Amino acid sequence: MTTPSSFSAAESLTGYLYQVRYALLDALRRVKDDIRFTVSIETLDDIVFETEGQPIELLQAKHHSKPANLTDTSNDLWKTIRIWVDQYKTNLGFRFYLVTTAKVANGSAAYYLQANQNRDVSKAISRLDAISQSSTNKGNLAGYDAYRSLNSEEKEDLIDRVTVLDATPTILDLEKELRREVFHAVDIKYLDSFIIRLEGWWYRRALQHLNRDNQKPILAEEIIAEEANLREQFKQDNLVVDEDILSATIDESGYQDRLFVQQLKLIDLKDKRIFIAIRDYFRAFEQRSRWVREELLQVGELDKYEARLMEDWEIRFEQLRDQIGDQTAENEKRRLAQELYSWIETGNLQQVRPQVNEPSMARGSYHILSDNQVVGWHPEFKQRLIQLIGVGG
């Protein structure tokens, strides 16, 4: 068992991931009522929601891996107040939310700032006044100073804008909340795969957003569009094709001895086209493997699909062979084989399901069949492979 180092940043990293995951959950909840908002991460605050004509909402997200209480002297509370006092002084149009997995202590300032029947801003201010004047907690001094810098009217105005959301789900429990939000998006058996991809897209979009050179807010419309896109891919006549597989970098050197590459070399294909074939093979192999692992395919579906591909190939292969005679030169055989292969590259190939529209899935599937020597391009491909590397069946 590995013991965490004293220099471990696990807690901080978990806090950042919690912030990103909570932002997605909150955004999914909001799009049900309004699609005009934007969401930002690590700008004015941990999470920022903005809707035209509405107060900008600033969220501080605090995650605790273990049970914790939010008391009047909690560092989470006073660190947040220090940040919000600065924000308040620059813009009077904000509303402030403290989102925390900790539970507020009964009778504390945070207790009186919840969005329920306990809310009492005057009592909250009284407790904050008392603590900021009497506490000697050095870790909170900056927060105390910031709070005391406000006059009475400013304190009342700021604290009235504050809402504490306590005992929120931990980062692991947020997954259950995400499942509830998208429960009706797809068939229940595809829900885990749907969430994996929605979150994958969200983290990539958040990273793009966090790029300081391109820190445009994320539009609610983007979230809606991605949900719709994924829903389409999980329908019965479609299959999801993952962006991480399509954008992966391919090391072609590891494929040079594969039979499907040897088959392409038999017909004198140029290196660039061989690389494209390797890329198609990689994409189809990885995606098909993922479909199988996630049980997105019906029993025997890939076998039936490959049988359809083989029938289409067989028709064209036999047409090619009819053009070959005893006296046909090798150059002519290779020219005809390249014509057959061109159909793989640009032809209207069958997809595993009608709405799958990524062409590399079908092209790569043919290379998988070629690797298994059940299809080929040269009219004598089986004999040539035996001569070349001693394989065949």
Helix/strand/pairing class, anyone?
Answer: alpha/beta
Uncertain runs: none
Order of helices and strands: HEEEEHEEHHHEHHEHHHHHHHH
| Strand content range | 5-15%
Q: Mind summarizing the main beta sheet?
A: 6 strands, mixed
| Helical stretch tally | 15
Going across the major beta sheet, what is the strand order?
A: 7-5-3-2-1-8
The percent of residues in helical segments reads 40-55%
Count every beta strand, where a strand is a DSSP E run of 2 or more residues: 8
How far apart, in Å, are the first and last alpha carbons? Answer: 49 Å
Q: What is the mean predicted local confidence, pLDDT?
A: 93
Alpha-carbon Rg, integer: 30 Å
Label the overall shape.
Answer: elongated
Question: Which key terms come to mind for this protein?
Answer:
single chain; 393 residues; six-stranded mixed beta sheet; 15 helices; elongated
